Amino acid sequence: MDGAAPLFRMEGISKRYGGVRALEKAELSVTSGSIHGILGENGAGKSTLIKVMAGVVAPDEGSMTLDGREVSFASPAAANQAGIVCIFQELSLVPELSVADNIVISDPPTRFGMIDRKAQRRIAEEALARAGAADIHPLALVKDLPLSRRQMVEIAKALARKPRILILDEATSALAAADVAKIFAVLKRLRGEGLALLYISHRMNEIAELADQCTVFRNGRNVASYAAGSKSDNEVIELMIGREYSHIFPPKPVRLPATAAPVLEARTLSWTDRLDNVSLTVAAGEVVGLGGLDGQGQRELLLAFFGVLRGLSGEILIDGRPVAIASPAAARDDRIGMALIPEDRKTEGLMLPMTVRENLSFAALDRLSKGGIIDRAAEQRLIDDMVGLLAIKTAGLDIPVGALSGGNQQKVVIAKWLMRQPRIILLNDPTRGIDVGTKQELYQLMRKLADAGAAILFYSTDYDELIGCCDRVLVLYDGAVKRELVGAELTERALIASALNIHGGDATPRHGADA
Amino acid sequence: MKDWRYWLAEQRGTLLAFAIFIVMFAIYTANHPAGFTANVVQTASNKGVLLAFVAMAQTLVVITAGIDLSVGMIFTLTNCLASWLVIGTGLETAFGVIAVLGTGLLCGAINGAIVIYGRLQPIVATIATGAVYFGIALLLRPFPGGSVNEDLADALTGRLFGVVPASLVALFAVVLIVWVPFSRSVLGRAAYAAGSSETAAYMSGVPIRRGKFAAYALAGLLAAIGGLFLTFFTYTGDAAYASGNAYTLFSIAAVVLGGVSLFGGKGSAIGAIFGALAFRTIGDLLFVFDFDPLWQPLFQGVILLIAVSLGAFALFRVRNRLEWFL
């Protein structure tokens, strides 16, 4: 901004993870006594930028200045010392310790070498009061608090460190409206006290209410900075998208809606506070996308279908008949024939130290064996088929699967499930961290499987993918289906607008549940 | 909620272990031919404190979400060393004691350095170092033997004022000098935080490495105190492999009985002490009820299973099955 010299400035910051560039010559300057909103899509580089600021990640190049002097942070502790405190999206509280223990954790008050519990209690109570959360007992264990309360503790903890720059990364995503209002009052007061605040949020109305200055990030760069309120929601969305569209998607078949009977159907599925009356259908040959911001219940929905969640209410129907799916083993049973390609292939999809061959046949062992003995010839045939079909590049079937590239690992996960010839395929953000070439192969495979009669439910955080691959997309917000986008409605603008739950863009509201 | 309720929730494991021990010990003394006399208490105390020291050692490491399979061997090694050094004039004995405790501290520090800076899994690292420590013990005492300053030994295994077992007083002193300061220091807090969630602790700028290192080193020290007391009770050093291993395994059992979570971040050495005393009392109970000592391992196993099952009830409340594996 004009006049006041910035308190903190980042220039030419770049960061790569392997081949993926997370930040490319990014710039940002922060002024005291103001709230700076940061906007951008999933993966636009916001989180990496924050991590660089907070000393969690070292940038590959670029410089940072604080009070006009060049600084670099070797650790979060070093950034804290300099007065930069970040409230991360993933909570940084220690669950088995008490609220008070957590609030003073980076610098506990001591007396005679021991932690001064009275002083600790006092600091904690002050910090909780400052954060507008005086109702939280300082002796309660963090693990016993609900998520929204933990978020308040996180804010109190940040305040106890007397920050000059306070960064809030999606800090309100877990909060109820009443708590958000309290936080906003606190943040405005802190601005009055001269703090610099960085506020990252997907909720545009929050940014509009709070921020003085906004910066939009896209593809690892800051593409625009403007005074808050000087641009309309639609203009901001344009800035967030503005990305070249690549023609790597297979053509979609032209089809009339609701020609085929649904293979998979959900009726009013609810689970804890994460799923809220979700109803949907997926027909044979159809690719249905799940859109929305990260963490709006998409993952839980897939887990619900796959028999992982307990205490689920509502109905799941396969071929029009209600079924109770009690475990992943029941879900993959031939009568249901479901497969889930998990999001985290390293923990839920693969056994990394075991060989490619072993990993491939795990899910299909019961089909390949008679009387408990594996038919090695049949196993080999099927494995050869799959390696050919998916073009898995591996030096051999007997090397550890951990030695393969990310894209090929993901192909192994998919091949492993295809060996069961599933009729219903659930995909949980399968292209995360995969190169473009492999992505393209996966898109084509998905369409091929659908054409062969599979019903596919596909969750992705990448809007291009949803538009390019899906026949329909259901957008989730806060555990509920907010919009259904079909055919020409399926645009990036409509996806983002409905993901942010603002009623604009060219999408029509969803008309009730599927009849 | 009132403060005391939070305190109660935090101490639940310790109080449960305390209750189990009191009940078992009451049954034991009630059925003992001599009844609740100073003599009976002294004998029980002397047997109990050995495992109590080793269990305290194990607690420190388990709190960091690690495990120390060498505590029994440090216990054995320091016993053998004490049978050479803790002898002679008062000054010589004092130096001997310091050397023995220093050795234990060093053994623990080596474990810590390997686990933290060498980044080996605690289970593997301490199996290896345990074997090394036992090897050294065997070189020191190929055959049982040696001796100890008997005045000191008798003073520490006898009774104060004719009633209070001295070994119990020593245990209490060690709790006050080692455990209480550690658990209330920044390093102790760091050890708990690292055990509960290492990433969250790191993100908060907690001195994780120093906290864990302190936990491992002090574990070595506590095991050495146990080794010293073994020497006071037996007057000899004995590099007994089976005994060292048994102490390691029993220390894990005692820790679990005492409400310390093997996943780290939760529990107290006081709980582990009562866990150890309760575990020891099982054998005494079989004795007063005239069971064949052959039954002892079986009963210890059953008690342990019951105690561990109490902790597993929480799993019934889990609603996302993937959390079973966390």
Automatic annotation (TrEMBL), chain A:
Residues 8-244, 254-503 form the ABC transporter domain. The keyword Nucleotide-binding applies. Transmembrane segments: none annotated. It comes from Mesorhizobium neociceri. InterPro entries: AAA+_ATPase, ABC_carbohydrate_import_ATPase, ABC_transporter-like_ATP-bd, ABC_transporter-like_CS, P-loop_NTPase. Keywords: ATP-binding, Nucleotide-binding, Repeat, Sugar transport, Transport. This is Sugar ABC transporter ATP-binding protein. It holds the Pfam family ABC_tran. It comes from the Bacteria. SMART domains: AAA. Belongs to the ABC transporter superfamily. PROSITE patterns: ABC_TRANSPORTER_1, ABC_TRANSPORTER_2. GO terms for molecular function: ATP binding; ATP hydrolysis activity. PANTHER family: CARBOHYDRATE TRANSPORT ATP-BINDING PROTEIN MG119-RELATED, GALACTOFURANOSE TRANSPORTER ATP-BINDING PROTEIN YTFR. The keyword ATP-binding applies.
TrEMBL record, chain B:
The chain crosses the membrane at residues 12-30, 50-67, 74-91, 97-116, 123-140, 160-182, 213-234, 246-263, 270-289, 295-316. It is found in: Cell membrane. Keywords: Cell membrane, Membrane, Transmembrane, Transmembrane helix. It is a multi-pass membrane protein. Coiled coil: none annotated. The keyword Calcium does not apply. GO terms for cellular component: plasma membrane. The keyword Transcription does not apply. GO terms for molecular function: transmembrane transporter activity. This is ABC transporter permease.
